Each structure stands twice: as structure tokens, then as C-alpha cells.
Amino acid sequence: MKNLWAPWRIKYVKYKALVKNEGRKCFLCEIPKENRDKENFIIYRGKHSYAVLNIFPYNNGHTLVAPYRHVVYLGELNENEVLDLLNTLNLIVKAVLKAYRPDGFNIGINIGKAAGAGEEHLHIHVVPRWHGDTNFMAVLAETKVIPEGIYDTYENMRKAIEETISSAT
Prior knowledge:
alpha+beta; HIT family, subunit A; 5-stranded antiparallel beta sheet
């Protein structure tokens, strides 16, 4: 058996237990209401959308951008919500570039549970990529190495977002 120490995953395990045992609602709807941004890794709040770090990232800086309103399809958003969602996406891409200098990105929209989202709440994944970011661990050991802790990623991204916003004004 292969073990990889990942203490931050306990939050996911506890959340899934709550969902199963208490019928908890969609986490993308719930976490912005809690007003515990640091604990929930919310790194940015716009008028109609927000950005939150993926606590099970493919790479450091992996962020989810989601509307506050629970919708499944893009067509359910009004024009202001779509514009804010895309502006938030653009801000996150700029912040990731500033904080991590990736060589590229995978950006994808998860729509519905069948898309692998686990939630039927529209959200966009922003995954920074680097040349050679797949190494022997992923190929031989089926293990992904994330070199930076999520708390450090949270601080780095918050700082990069603040710098990006201040340089735009």
C-alpha cells in the first residue's frame, strides 16, 4: 500500500461525511456564506462570483472560479454574472502568472456531476502548468507531488491578487 501524508484532506473527508450524514448543501454555495475566507481558502470575492483554492490541487495555484448563485449551465447566468465570472477568471490567471510564473494553463468548466465536479454548481478550474510538471512520481508511483502547502499558496495568491488589482488602477 502506498501512503502519502496529506493532512489538509481531512477537511474534505469531514465535509463528505457531513454531506452524507446531514444532507449538507453544495459547498460552492455554502462556503461564501460562512464569511471564513481564510479557513475556506477563498482568495477573491467579486460582485457575482468568487475564487477559491482547490484544496485537492493538480498543481500549486489550482483555483476554482464560481458564481455565488447556484446554476448548472452558463446560459442560466445573466450578462452581469457572466461578465463578473470572466473578469474574476482573468484576475486569477494574472495573479497565478504573477505568483508562480507557469508556462501555461489548463482552464476548464465543470458542468454537472458527470463532469467530475461532484457538485452541480457551475465552476471553472484554473490549473497552472509547467513544462515537465509530470515527473516520475506521477508516471511510476501514480502519486502527484504538490511542492507547496495550501496555506502558503493562499498567502501567495492573496498577495498576487492585491498587487494585480493595485497595478490595474
